Amino acid sequence: MLSGIVFWVLAVVAVAAGVAVFRVDSMARATYALAASFVAVGLSLLLLDLQFLGVMTVLMMVMEMAIMAIYMIMFMGMNPALMPMSMVHGKRPALLISVGTFAVLATGALLVPWPTRRGAPAADLVTSLGEAVMESKMLVMLTVSPVLFATIVAALVLALPRSRYDRLGADLRGRADR
Amino acid sequence: MTVVQVSAGWVPLAAALLLTVATAAAALDGVLAARAGGRPLGEGLLTPAAETARLFRQRRRTTVAADLPLQRIGGAGLLTAALLMVTVVPFGRWTVADLSVGVVWFNAMDVLLWAALWLAGWGPNSVHPLVAGHRFLAQALSYELPLMFALTTPAVAAGSLRLGDLVAAQSGLWFVVWMPVAFVVFCAGVLAFSAWGPFSAALGGGATGGVLAESAGVDRWLVTAGRYALLTAGAAFGATAFLGGGHGPLLPAWLWVLVKTALLLAVLVALRRRLPVVRPERLTVPAWLVVLPLVLVQLLVVSVVVVVRG
Questions:
Q1: Are residues B166 and B96 in the same domain?
Q2: Helix (H, G, I), strand (E, B) or coil at B231
Q3: B218: domain range?
Q4: Are B115 and A70 inside 8 Å of each other by CB?
């Protein structure tokens, strides 16, 4: 009963905030509407007893959206981010693609013969999640993380043409400023 | 000592307790300000009441083309985050929410402050709050990772993310004794997410007033009270995760929690007048090149001890 009410409230909030992302006219509102939608999804994971994943989703998404808001405002040229603006473009293809995707996925969900459950959930979900990530998938992680890290460093180097040269001077020895 | 989850009817009482301790922290800050300014100490003691009366009678301030919903959400976010943080902290034998991932919950709530302070700065459509909101995010990028690893350390030692298990694991030896670096980094993290003392650039009383520059009346009260509530919630978590929680001789467990929280909180409040404010852009290099490796070494030492002990 109670979890049913909580689920429906969270579901409505998630969808309504998701709709709001495209209806509002400001970058900040759109970003934080998306964050609110993700928080509702994260909290609804708690209903599935996936507490770690649920709380982690809230943590990651709020952090991500806080940073994303800054980048969106920073990189929208001509300063439209600070004025009212439409959050949608290419309306007709976007509408066609999204309705098509929804129809395909919904049809699939209704028509696919769902397998019956095999096995039982682990007693300690956090531990089993950690083992799944750290044992069999470790090689993937080890491959992915250097690539991701290199991407971050490269992006920062490109975004900051002067960075440490500002602080340490052209020869990187002394203190150029202050 | 086992921790039991109390019924939801106790939640208002827990919130009132947090606000009471936060008020005491504000009174202590008032006394310290009065002593520094050579005014009578009793006047300083009444600061919370006087400020509340003053701000509740003051008109709210609205600026041109302000984004009021976001401004209000951001302003209320500090107090909300503090109240949500403290739900997982056991008060002696009782807790409001016995969450199996309490440590992560605390961390997620302190991340909410990234959004809250930036929104409070963005909302007024005014230069100084906007810049201060961005400065808080820059500071957050510096303090969040060291804080995360400082939070991980006691969880690794206890082998659990549940705060009740953290307390139980400290029955012999408090965590602060063998993970002092993590404790210091955690305390710095609490100061930083509360935008207090050396990390108060975003809310500072400098030339601009930062995020609060355009804020008056009840809006200003919410942010100010939220800061003290955040310090209190952080101190309560620190007392639980590092200072043994309810463990101690003679006194009942809940009183020990209260005493330890009050002592840690008093230190955090007093640090405000002892340390200079660090500019957020100067914080990144020491935070990432010195503090982060230090806290990682601390985590490594604790992990090795846990593995060797079996």
A1: yes
A2: helix
A3: 68-309
A4: no
